[in-house]
Amino acid sequence: MQESQLLKIANEFGSPVYVYDGHKIENQYKRLTSAFKNVKKLKLNYAVKALSNISVLKLLHSLGSGIDTVSIQEVQLGLAAGFKPEQIIFTPNGVSLNEIEEAAKLGVKINIDNLSILEQFGAKHPNTPVCIRINPHVMAGGNANISVGHIDSKFGISIHQIPHILRIVENTKMNINGIHMHTGSDILDIEVFLYASEILFETAKQFDNLEFIDFGSGFKVPYKPGDIETNIEELGKKLSKRFNDFCKDYGKELTLAFEPGKFLVSESGYFLAQVNAVKQTTSTVFAQVDSGFNHLIRPMFYGSHHEISNISNLKGRERFYTVVGYICETDTFGNNRRINEINEGDILAFKNAGAYCFSMASNYNSRLRPAEVLWYNEKAHLIRKRETFDDILHNQIAVDFSEQKETVAAK
Predict the structure, then answer these.
(1) Which of 74, 244, 362, 407 could form a disulfide with 48 if both were Cys (CB 3.0 to 4.6 A apart)?
(2) For residue 380, what is the domain's CATH number?
(3) Domain Orn/DAP/Arg decarboxylase 2 C-terminal: where (predicted)?
């Protein structure tokens, strides 16, 4: 998107505001499908947790995507967006058997990563096909909080527990239709991913009725100019050949599945915030914006980098600023950044704000959550209204303590 378009959106819809470029989402989807064009059966299941706005889901549905969900609410959201149950896979962690049964009743694909739950579900519902999430014990990902395939992870059933899985399957006569793994996010080295894939292929040989193998995702996108990203094209070439060879040996054409989230939507997103004040201290120049980690928590939570530009002053001379928010805690978006000269009232654009940004927003400090806008076919579509103070009070129940005191006094 052009800076002029972003500035126009900020002026029209106010700030702070999230903006998503629908065409970038389309291009990323097509890039991934193109990389794996040599696989006969490919299924991309968008990870809803990355960005769950129903209009974004509808856009991905129109491209042919399925969805990966981690809560019953995400399943329901997917159904509301028009996805058929068979286009939805439910991949929770640590949820109750009741929630998994609720999802199964809706007809979606089930993915289980716990031996106890697997046995309980298989005993009660042996005819319901189940995918099993394996922990390959491979450390991958750009941050400890998003590396989920290592030995100490809470996710997946250990590859060392395959005999336990086989015993449960034999005892319950349940149908295992898929094998799944997810090593982590921000994967740099495709060789690590391919190594984990070999573990998954070896595991898949243990099951006779598979329909698909799900390799998760975690592909890294660039966060700044010259940044490293996952080489999707090379991965597509190598993994496609290995997958096709496996299918020949297996004697059946399986579906190769991925569950990309960040890869599809991260670069499409811009977070626009207005500068409230420029504050000079003895050592730092702060640009204080009308937002905080209540709207964009990733820099404080993951140490993530978001490029920041002053779209109100594109030709101004560059100076160094530390960009911070208005939350009553440290909420630094970027430290000592080189940005075109900032004045109060300017609009700053934060890039890579499509994934895990609005979806992790909160009402901390009783602040309102911002609006969301989808840019598509040269038009800005409002896809979520900015919250109002009534939204803050909604579902709160005010107790009248004066009446209680009068009752106590009367006694």
Answers:
(1) 74
(2) 2.40.37.10
(3) 18-354
As a dihedral over the C-alpha atoms of residue 28, residue 80, residue 269, residue 233, rounded to 10 degrees, the angle is -10
- Summarised one tens digit per residue, pLDDT across range 170-194 is 999 999 999 999 776 667 788 888 9
Q: Coil, strand, or helix at residue 172?
A: helix
Judged by DSSP in three states, 3 sits in helix
Residue 400: inside a domain, yes or no?
no
Same-domain check for residues 349 and 203: no
What's the token pair of residue 10?
A: 């900020």
Q: What is the pLDDT of residues 117-165, one digit of tens each?
A: 999 999 999 999 999 999 988 754 444 443 444 456 788 999 999 999 9
On whether both 300 and 164 belong to a single domain, the answer is no
Binding residues: 218, 298, 302, 329, 356
Q: Based on the domain organization, do 254 and 277 belong to the same domain?
A: no
β-sheet bridge partners, residue 109: 89
pTM over 0.85: yes
Numbered residues of the known binding site for pyridoxal 5'-phosphate? 218, 356
The beta-carbon contacts of 80-89 under 8 Å, at least 24 apart in sequence, are: 80/54, 81/54, 81/57, 82/58, 83/57, 87/45, 87/61, 88/45, 89/45, 89/131, 89/214, 89/257, 89/259
Q: How many domains does the chain have?
A: 2
Residues 110 and 103 sit within 8 Å (Cβ to Cβ): yes
Whole-angstrom distance, CA of residue 249 vs CA of residue 169: 23
Same domain, 297 and 383: yes
Average pLDDT over residues 100-124: 97
Q: Residues 71, 112: one domain? A: yes
Give catalytic residues, as residue numbers: 328
Do 256 and 41 touch, CB atoms closer than 8 A? Answer: yes
Residues in binding site for substrate: 298, 302, 329, 356
404 assigned to some structural domain: no
Nearest residue to 239 via CA among 261, 263, 258, 220: 258
Domain contains 310: yes
Contacts 24+ apart (CB under 8 A), 113-117: 113/155, 113/156, 113/157, 114/157, 115/157, 115/161, 115/164, 115/165, 115/168
